[in-house]
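User: Second chain of the day. Same drill as before.
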Amino acid sequence: MIGKWFRRSQPTVADDAQRVAPPMIAPARRRGARLYQAAQADRVTSGWSKSPLPADQIVRRNWRALVARSREQLVNNSYAKAFQRSVRRNVIGQKGFILQAQVQGVDGKPDADANRAIEAAFKKWSKAKNCDVKGVRSFLQIQKTLVNGLPSDGEFMVRHVYGRDAGPWGYGLQILDPVNCPADFDEDRRPNGRFIRAGIEYTKMGRPVYYYFHTLDVSQSDYSHAGRAFIRVPADQIIHWFEEDLVGQKRGLPWMATALLRMRQLDQFERAALTNARESANKLGVIEWDEGFGPAPDDDDDNDDEAAEVELTSEEGIYHEMLQGQRLKRVESPYPNGEMAVFSKHNLRGVASGLGAAYNDLANDLEGVNLSSMRHGMQAERDRWKELQESLIESFVSEVFEKWLEYSLIAGKITLDNDATLSPRHLSKYLDATFHARRWDWMDPSKDVKADADAVENLFKSRGQVIRERGRNPRDVYREFAEDIQAMKDEGIPPEIIAALITAKSKGGSPSVPAVETDPDETIAGGGNDSAQAE
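Assistant: Same format as last time:
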């Protein structure tokens, strides 16, 4: 009985049909498949890096080659040179960074005398003989030189110099070549937990304390390593600026790095096409022999030399008579053809994207461009320039101003109109200043001026903000207004007419002032008065 009750019955066909199939187990190679396609390792991605590198290794492995090739392209590549000029023109401009002192008195109002004295002294120091230790570059030219190196170097280094070596003012700037600070100079286990990376010595927390520079004069060196002599400069004397793309990055990389390969390949392609076009213009060809003519394959060397001397020279208006059995076969070159312009434009757009520049400006190509598309592209690019300007003001220009002001106050270099000097005891108060960077002309003046005027009228902006956005000092503008008004008063113009001229709208004049015909080509946004009012 026990065997009957526990005996297992044979399964039927119906039971097999209802039985649930066990879950399928993925093959081993599919169980480890990555969710992201870009992370998969297959034949297509076999040459793609799979191990992330820290910033120090990236700089050490690539810095020297990237800087060398970027500098070479600046010499030989027209688009690289155009990008360098664009950076200098847009970031620095014609006047560079302009100081506006904002010192306030004890009553909370602007101290006009102190502001005027600081601005005048800084302008005097900014001359080449005072601010440059070599006496050859003004402060504006120093700014341009530093920005010129950013496309190829990605960084710049400037040294504060004090005392007799600094020049007549006693404080000056020395431009240093970043190449002289070796990016391959690393050293661990320095005293107090310090270490050297890319030619810079850091505390154990990562604060720079010394910069090392190559020197060929061993007598001037104060540090040597692996047979190389270095000059060690304290970090508080160095302004080292670069854009940090990676966390922990200690040296800048060229701005042209991502576009460098494409720029060179495009340049080589254009050179080859130009050579091909020149050869095609010469109507190249080869001489072929009909069967039974020409030198036999087993002729001796003398016959081969004689046959090789048969050639035709292309001359204008001259037709050559060929030998019996000879015929001329033209060699046609396909490039340049209609596809070359499309191909070059496609690559230049990629180059412009890598450089962060507007394609139309980089390639000098205004074909098919309208005002709306140009405005959109230029505004995006100008936002990038403004970002760089603010970074340079914060990290370079303001630091130079602080060092200059501290030294100048101690040395008694800043004097008021009554020949009294500003006291260094109020250094913190005199540090209140801003710098104005260059701004750009309106692409659509009438709309831009109207937008600013509406913003001022609706209290979205102040008049001073509008003026500062145009790259000018509001006090300078107000002072010019006051001088204009005073000049009109001196010439006997009645006050009511002066007020009407200043407050006149762009369309039609004041009822008390007769309308004056103006040349439309000389009028911006309906009239100079409205433009001034918007400011």
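Residues 201 and 287 are 70 Å apart (CA to CA).

User: Great, on to the next one.
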